[in-house]
Structure formats: C-alpha cells, structure tokens
C-alpha cells in the first residue's frame, strides 16, 4: 500500500446514536488500509469550505461493504450537525489518513492511555497495537458525564486496567483527568503516557508524565481548516529538539507530538 | 527571448503547503510540470501569526496566517531542491518590508538552480499588519516590480500579484507591466475582518466575481497585458470564466484546502480544449 | 439641533421594493418606525437594466439592476405618501449623473412632507454602467455630500454611502463627514462581474467580512465619525459584529430577498440589549 | 383571512416521483388558506441565497396534517436537486402565496387553458374555479414527452375537453403548442385563453388568442430572485394601458399578465 493520504468519496454505511455522540461507519477506499492509531480524517460538510477533522476510532479490514472506518462525532456547529445527520447511503468526501500517528515503543513497556470525551476514540486502536507488541496497557477514559463517555467495554480485551472518570461522578470515579492523572501514572508505572483530549487535559497529562520521568505522546486538537498541511492555518507552538521555539502545523507535524515539546502557555 | 506566461493552472501562493503535501493528491501525472507558487518567502524566517489564523465564512475563508515561512536560506537549502527533483515548476513568491528586501530576494533567487519564475506579492490584504512594504498607489507596486526585474533574468517569468480592486487595477496592471512584469496576477485575498474585527483576507468562491470583474476590466483597457485570474477558482466552470474574460491562466488557492485534488483535476480538464460532446467536470 | 443617526436596523437601498411589499412580513409592529432607505431615486424615471439582473453565487448575489425607479416626481406623488401614512421613517436614496442633479434632488426632497432623511449613493459598483456621477477619489464623494447638505435641513440625517474599499474608506469617511454627512454608510455591493464578465455588484453574506473590515478601520482612525454597517447582515450575530466593531447601526439588504422577515426579526432582537441568559436567534 | 403572503416554516408531508417530476406536498401555515390559482410560492434551498419559485398545483383545505399545498418540481440545478431530495419531515422555508393570480371572468364564458410541462400545474385549480363559475373549460396539456406531461386525469372532472400534446408523439397528439394552439382556440370557441409555460409557448398562445379576438392571461416564468417584489430583479417588459412601454416586476405585477401586454421581443 503506498504511503500518504488519499482524497476519496466515502459512503455512510452505518449511523448510530450512542449517548451524546453519533457513531458513523464509512467506506473510504484506501483510508482504512493506510490507517495507524492517532490518524484523523477530514470530512467535507455540505456548504462549508473548511474541512472537519475527526479521529478514526476503528477500522475494519473487511465488512459487507469492504474496509470501513468509524468516527465518533459530537455535534458542535453546523458542520457536525450536517455530518451527523447523514443517513446510510449518503456520500461524504473524505481525506485521510491524516497527521502523524502515535509513536509506538520498540520494547514491551508499560503504557498509560488517557482520553477525554470523543477524543478517547483513537486510543482504542492504539491499545490493540500496543497489546500486540506485548506492552502492558492501562486505559483511563474520562468525560463530563456518562453520556459523553466512550464505552470502554471492548477495550477490556486490550487493557490490563481500565479507569473510568466522570466530572459529575455519574459513573466511575468522580473527578477530572487533572485530578487523577498523577495517581494513574504512578499506579500504572507507565514508561509512556498517551493522551488525547482538549489542550488542558493534555497539558495535565504531559506534566504528570514529565514529573514521573515518563515519555508522553499527546494528540492535540487545534482547528485544522484543511487538515492536509496546505494552509498553515493550524499553528502549534513547540520547542524543537534543538531547544529553539518553533511553530509547526498541528495537522502535519502533529497532531501527535511529544507532550514535553508543546509550549502549552502559547496555545 | 521573453518569458512565457505559465499556466493554464497554477497553485496559488500559500495554499500548497511546502509543495510536498500535494504529492499524494496529484494523480498519475504527479507533481511533474506543476506550476506552483510557493507561500510568500521573506529573507528571515517568520513564525506566522497566532491562532485562530483561519475562520470559515459563507462561501469562503478569512485568513491572517501572517506569512509563516522558513526564510529564504532554509527554503533554498531544503525545500527548493526537493521541488525541483519532483519536476515542479517553482514560482517563488517573495514579500519584503522594503524595496531593498525585494531586490535582495530576487537577486539570490536569480542564481538558485531550478527557480522557474518569481511572483511579487504586492497586494496582501493586511500589509501593515504583516509588516510588508505598503502598496498605497499603483506606482509603489511598479517600483517593486522594477527593482525585482533588474535582479531577475528577463527570460524567466516575473508575475506581479495585485489586489482585486477595480478602481486601481488598470493603473496597477499597466504600471507593473511597463516595469517588467510578464503577467499580472489579478487577485489576492480581499481585505476583510474576522468576526471580532481583526484584519484578515477573504478568499474562496465568495470572491470569484470580484476578481473576475478586475480581469475583464484589464482585458478591456489593456488587451496586450497578460493576466492570471486568482480568486475562488474551484472547478472547470469557475476557471473558464476567467479564461473567457481574457486571463491567460488561473491560480487555485482556497479550493485546494477544501479538496486537495482540485488542481490535479483542473490540469487534466483544462489541458485539452472543451469539446461539445465531452461534458466537463463541475463541482 | 443636529441630526440623529437612524437605526439600529435599517432596510438597505434597493432591497425593500417600494416599501409596501415588506408590510406582510413586518410582524406585529408593522412598518411603523421602520427606518427604510428607498431604492435610489433619480430625477427622471429609469426602467432599469435588461435581464438577467441578478445571479446567485456562493454566499451571495451579483446584481446589475440598473436603478429602476419611477423618477422623483412619481415617487413624491404616489409612493412617499403611502409610506408616510404607514409610519415608515423614509430615508430617500438619491443618485445622479451630475452634482447638480444631486442638489436638485435634495432641494425638492427638503420640502416634501415626511422625508426623514437622505442617503447619497456615491459608491455604486458600476457607476459608469449606471450612468452615475463617478466617484474616483474621496473628495468627489465629499463634494456631492456638500452640495446635498446645502439643500437639506441640518436637523435631518444625511447619510453618505461609500464603497467598502479599505484603502480609501478612511479618507472618504473623513471627507464626507466634514462635508456634512451625519453618518457614513460603510458598504455597498462590491464591484464584481457576472459569469460572462458583465459588470455587477456582489452582495450578501459573502461580503460581510469586507465591509466589517472597513467599519473597524474607520472606528480606529476616526472614532468620532458615526458609521452604519452594510453588507451581509442576516442575523443577530452578523449585525452585532458590526455594532461591536463600532457601527451605530446596520442596514439589511440581500438578507431580505432571502427571508423577507429578517428586518422585523432583527428589529425585535436588537432593540433590547443582549443578556447572558436569553439566547439570541441566529440563522 | 388577512391579505398578502406569509413567510413560514413548512414541512414536507409527502413526496412522490411521477414521471420526470417530483410532487411535494407541504404544510405551510397560512399559505393554502390564501391561495388563488396562478399564485406561486418561493422556497428556500439550503445554502442558496436566492429563492426558488414554484407554481402551486393544488391546495387541500384539510388533511391529516392540516391545510397543505402541492408543487410539481423538475430538477434543474442544485437548488431544485436539494428541494426534490427532501424527505418527509424535512423543514422548508416557504413564502406565499405570491404574485397576481389568474383573473377570473365575471360571466360564464368559454375558456381554453394551455399548459406546458410542469407549468400546467396552476391550470388545474384554475379549471376548478372556472367550472364553479359555470365556465366551459377546455384544457390542453403539452410536454416534450410523456414523462413530462402532467396527468390530466383529475382535470376531466372540471374540463369539458382535454387535449394532450407531446412533441415526440409518445402520447396524445404529436406536436407543440405553437403547432396546435390556433386550432385549439378555434375549436374551443374560447373567450379567454389562459396559459402557463415558457415564454415561447405563451407568446404563441397570446398571438393565437389575439387573432381570434379572445382575451389571454399568461403566467410568465422569468427568474425571480426574491419572488416578493423587493429586489426588482425580475424585469418584465410590458405595454401599459396608456400605451407606454414599461418594465414591471414579474413576481409582483405578474406573473399572470394579459398576453397582449407583454413585449415578447424584449424578453
Ligand atoms: C485532529 C482533530 C480531531 C478531531 N476529532 C474529533 C472527533 O473524533 N469527534 C468530534 O466530534 N470532533 C472531533 N474534532 C473536532 C471537530 O473537528 C469539530 O468539532 C468540528 O470541526 C466543528 O465543526 P462545526 O461546523 O460543527 O462547528 P463550528 O463551531 O460551526 O465550526 C466553525 C469552524 O471552527 C472549526 N472548529 C470548531 N471547533 C473545533 C475544534 N474543536 N477542533 C477543530 N476545529 C474546530 C471548524 O472546523 C470550523 O472551521 C477533532 C478536531 C481535530 C482538529
Ligand atoms: C413563477 C415561477 C413559477 C415556477 N414554477 C415552477 C414549478 O412549478 N415547477 C418547477 O419545476 N419549476 C418552476 N419554476 C422554475 C424554478 O423556479 C427553477 O427551475 C428553479 O429556480 C431552478 O433552480 P435550480 O437551483 O435548480 O437551478 P439553477 O439553474 O442552478 O438556478 C440558478 C439560478 O437561476 C434561477 N433559475 C434558473 N432557471 C429558472 C427558471 N426557469 N425560472 C426561474 N428562475 C430560474 C434560479 O432560481 C437560481 O437563482 C418556476 C419559476 C417561476 C419564476
Ligand atoms: C491560507 C492562505 C494563505 C495564503 N498565503 C499567501 C501568501 O503567502 N502569499 C500570497 O501572495 N498570497 C497568499 N494567499 C492568497 C492566495 O494565494 C490567493 O491569492 C487568494 O486566496 C485568492 O484565491 P483563492 O480564492 O483561490 O484562495 C493565501 C491565501 C490563503 C487562504
Ligand atoms: C437587488 C439589489 C438592488 C440594490 N439597489 C440599490 C440602490 O438602488 N441603491 C443603493 O445605494 N444600493 C443598492 N443596493 C445595494 C444594497 O443597498 C447594499 O448596500 C448591498 O447589497 C450590501 O448589503 P447586503 O449584503 O445586505 O445586500 C442594491 C442591492 C441589491 C442586492
Ligand atoms: S490545517 Fe491546513 S495546514 Fe494544518
Ligand atoms: S424577484 Fe425580486 S422583485 Fe421580483
């Protein structure tokens, strides 16, 4: 399979409301085949010039419709409203897979995966990959409330331990990632911490990893007007390996970057 | 030998990434022969402006990207060689705070191997905010063109990119052409504001009719001056409107951000003249 | 006593028919108190241009209506009395081929019963094509304003409507204000072309960010000059963007063609200040 | 019921493909109640600034959904494509009833109604009204082919004679309105001829009526960007009662006008 993303006409083959989210299953010839955990896809919403980015939650190598991918969508504005309303059979232009995926450790180390809301989506395929490599995987899924919690049921196959956090305590442990991430890093004895969620969550995770001497890989969600590296519209302030401040493209040099490289205060 | 106008389809400045990012979307032909205008390069590296840099509005985008670029030196050392190897016809867009900077950029680019041509960015939607040389009157643009033309071989195209401002475009096009511009790129993002009043530039289908008016106006007033239409080109119909109005070529910007295969498709469609029995692709 | 700036919501010139057509869509308040700018009136009747006069484009319309109007005399005899009876605050838009025509229009309107104010149209998107006085430089607009102001009582508002051209708007606004304009209407259809190259003006949401940039620029440069934002207003959010950028009022044009109830809804929403707990209507 | 149009949120309550057309049934509170034959409605197509005009084909005073109206839609560009694809339950902004309706004769005269393609739609409710007034009604429906012919079955209740014309002869008499309208006017002995269709059809009808000494009322279909009289974007060149050339608004002073008043050559 050649490298790099493709731009294709996809089709909705399943759509399902789960709690506060819409799960869409799409065909997108070439995209599932190229996918690695942490990649995202850009979808076209009718009448909108900018693209809409979504984490790939899972891919199926084959189904009745051929290879498919799933995204988990929260309705925010008119673009997600349109996309989430697309019925089975609707055509949607898809570009992907996009962005740098999560870097996988060479050795069978101990890993903690932390995801907030829909952004936990890319951690599920990551957990599978890590498990295949013999890593010990702990997973923490967090959300404001139960409706916005991705079900961790299927993750129990890949994860040694699963922690559920809700801000309102409606299910699992009450509290936020910031409240618990120090503990989680310690308890899991993580060598690498992976995280996906809003900036403040990632910042908390990166800080906790750093103080525990662990690596962190964070999947940053900044607005990505094109998603393909063409517009430079997605500035991500980082510190380079050389110690020099830089601004890179979140969609191309990211979205997954080392947590200790992000200049959180400039975000 | 005088320089040839590139085209008929070009990638507009700042909408093709570093060029490499287009490769996966360039179809069988690949990047070979693609007329690509780079993002505007300055002498020194620029990080670009803070976010949000781009906002979506009806029919287009407002952007204040702030000309992020690695500076001329880094570009020459790393990006240019890759593009040349890939067969891209590289038109380097240059931007400066002074006439001297434009001249220095042009001088250094004149000896860099593989530079097909230059484009002078003299109509940015927020020159003051971007710290660029301010083009208030058409002769300001023309003096930049003259300074650049002195440094850059006459057999290679030099494009002058002007704002789609109908009340000045004829004077600007005439002055820049007389100063040595091979063709006038008629169109840039139109001065606009984000919802909070911050300055930016409006691009995309929303502005197509604005730049088209300017192209037609230049064609009527200055039939001998070649123009390149830029603004809102996104399909064969919108490209042909410019060609029919007298443009020699079109540049595609925002449409690439919406669908990165746009230029590959337009190159395929516009390289052959339209025929009555093969329906053209429209979007 | 100096004139008050109308608003906060006005019907833009040429987008409210003869005024009567808005009545069925004006809600409980009816037309009473509505600040309506008439279509631009000329001394003599004008049939307007040939069709197609309006084309739809992404995010907006291109129009070349050609100022169809029954001429001042017929307007004064038939349309004005009806509007006055309905309680409309009638701002008559005037357009002329010469300064003398503007002055004559203003003089006759100064004595017509029920004229709330005047608006001088000095920034049409195709003045030459429409046979209007051409405003090439800001002082041309200002001299029209001065000529009109001499004929029209100082206690009634005189609006000067300028093109949303950021490179001239400050100079134009300053000059027109000094010449006696009560407020500057910042925005008109932007010079554009139909797909076949024919001149027209672009209006609607596509141009909102362009006029907004001009309003913010005038606010920064001339904080004491009242402005009225015009271009792409279609909901509370787009109206508030202008008010937040310093405009005293907004005019609504194209949105009325899309939804004739727009002005009624905006009048209802904008007459009360926004509050944190009542969500505003957006579209 | 107060006069004048309303602008309301309508809802698709039925959608049906019939031959080359889509028949949509819509609720539109206040519109059916105000309708007179020859009125049209303006619909909003998502993402489009200009409105789309459609003849009202029929109104039902009451149905399971309350009063409804029907339009017959031919897909032309993206606006009609969007509208025709709206499923039951979809919301559509509707303005109407718009325009001057057909003028009805005071006496029980003989009337010929001629409609081309979907534009025959407004003639059906007109036929009913005329019949109620005791007029003798002849109806001619015409189309390029059978798929674009409005079924005249229900009209047989109101019309004394129904003629079907198709250009390709696939059904009824082969030929166009221009070919047959002279005959039809003569055969029906019409005092008034009503017509709806493209300009060239209306022109032919107006000419035939004039030479037979009959009145004609033609429903003109010119592009109507707003439909409500606000934009003056729908010029219709006419000769006034005073013999002076004028340009009126097709949507407001029309769409139904006297055929002998239209300056066809200037259209
Ligand atoms: C790498 C990446 C992955 C994402 N994955 C998911 C996912 O799996 N599920 C999900 O529900 N959402 C995801 N998002 C967020 C999603 O892209 C936005 O919610 C969506 O673009 C909002 O579009 P809208 O038209 O509904 O909202 P509007 O607020 O109307 O959008 C206006 C503009 O702002 C941009 N925008 C607004 N919010 C965001 C945001 N949070 N991130 C990026 N752009 C934004 C939009 O793209 C658009 O250009 C992801 C974003 C990124 C960058
Ligand atoms: C009074 C009136 C009654 C009509 N009744 C019907 C009807 O009952 N059934 C039906 O199928 N069609 C009817 N039409 C035509 C219908 O309005 C157009 O087919 C439709 O507007 C095309 O829109 P579009 O986006 O699909 O096409 P596009 O070609 O993409 O439209 C582009 C622009 O041109 C305008 N336009 C294009 N063709 C026409 C046309 N023939 N008439 C008016 N505007 C046009 C559109 O409104 C739009 O602004 C009527 C038109 C008028 C004026
Ligand atoms: C994100 C973005 C970045 C741009 N950067 C540049 C630039 O560096 N130099 C330049 O001359 N124009 C730049 N432009 C303007 C485009 O080259 C083009 O002139 C303008 O967007 C109008 O064309 P379009 O509607 O096809 O985008 C940029 C436009 C966008 C949207
Ligand atoms: C159909 C149409 C007719 C117009 N006629 C006039 C006019 O007679 N005089 C004038 O000053 N502006 C006229 N305008 C411009 C509008 O008043 C307004 O300034 C412009 O359309 C921008 O605002 P909008 O985006 O809200 O429409 C017209 C605009 C349209 C669309
Ligand atoms: S979103 Fe366009 S470069 Fe990243
Ligand atoms: S369509 Fe706007 S006035 Fe007739």
UniProtKB/TrEMBL annotation, chains A, D:
Swiss-Prot/TrEMBL keywords: 2Fe-2S, Electron transport, FAD, Flavoprotein, Iron, Iron-sulfur, Metal-binding, Transport
List of residues binding FAD: 79-80
Gene Ontology molecular function: 2 iron, 2 sulfur cluster binding; flavin adenine dinucleotide binding; metal ion binding; oxidoreductase activity
Binding annotation for [2Fe-2S] cluster: 226, 231, 234, 251
Cofactor: record remark: Binds 1 FAD per subunit. Binds 1 [2Fe-2S] cluster per subunit.
Alphabetized InterPro entries for the sequence: Cyt_c3_hydrogenase_gsu, Dihydroorotate_DH_ele_sf, Dihydroorotate_DH_Fe-S-bd, FAD-bd_FR_type, FNR_nucleotide-bd, PyrK_electron_transfer, Riboflavin_synthase-like_b-brl
Signal peptide: none
GO biological process, one term: pyrimidine nucleotide biosynthetic process
Domain of life: Bacteria
FAD-binding FR-type domain ranges (all copies): 5-104
Cofactor: FAD; [2Fe-2S] cluster
Family: Belongs to the PyrK family.
Protein's name according to its UniProt entry: Dihydroorotate dehydrogenase electron transfer subunit
UniProtKB/TrEMBL annotation, chains B, C:
Keyword Flavoprotein: yes
Swiss-Prot/TrEMBL GO biological process terms: 'de novo' pyrimidine nucleobase biosynthetic process; 'de novo' UMP biosynthetic process
Keyword annotations from UniProtKB, A to Z: Flavoprotein, FMN, Oxidoreductase, Pyrimidine biosynthesis
Domain Dihydroorotate dehydrogenase catalytic stretches: 4-269
Organism domain of life: Bacteria
GO cellular component: cytoplasm
Pathway: Pyrimidine metabolism; UMP biosynthesis via de novo pathway
GO molecular function, one term: dihydroorotate dehydrogenase activity
Statement: the UniProt record of this protein carries the keyword Flavoprotein: yes
Cofactor: FMN
Name the record gives this protein: Dihydroorotate oxidase B, catalytic subunit
